[in-house]
Design goal:
alpha+beta, 16% helix
């Protein structure tokens, strides 16, 4: 939640991609522990009634290869998105969301 407070515009933009009714659960800068100017991506997870939506936001400013995979609780029924993206990978949606 601290990341959302530090960059509310990015968190709100990612939520709009998921659709209405989604609430931010986590925002994780990647790689972990890096200064914001060195961040490569930010992983945003949102929840809506037990359903999840995940976005991998590109923080580099140019297209780069990104891979995002999210699995239901128990590791079954995974959904993924991958490719060269300048904005974000996803949204990837799953039911029975493990990141609440």
């Amino acid at each position: 939640m601290a990341l959302a407070k530090a960059d509310p515009a990015a968190a709100a933009a990612a939520a709009n991609v998921c659709g209405t009714g989604y609430t931010l659960r986590k925002g994780i800068p990647l790689p972990l522990g890096t200064e914001p100017s060195e961040r490569l991506a930010t992983l945003f997870s949102y929840e809506n009634g037990g359903k999840g939506c995940v976005i991998l936001d590109n923080n580099v400013g140019k297209a780069q290869y990104m891979y995002l995979q999210v699995c239901k609780v128990g590791g079954t029924a995974c959904a993924k998105d991958s490719g060269n993206f300048s904005g974000y990978a996803g949204p990837v949606r799953v039911s029975s969301f493990p990141c609440g």
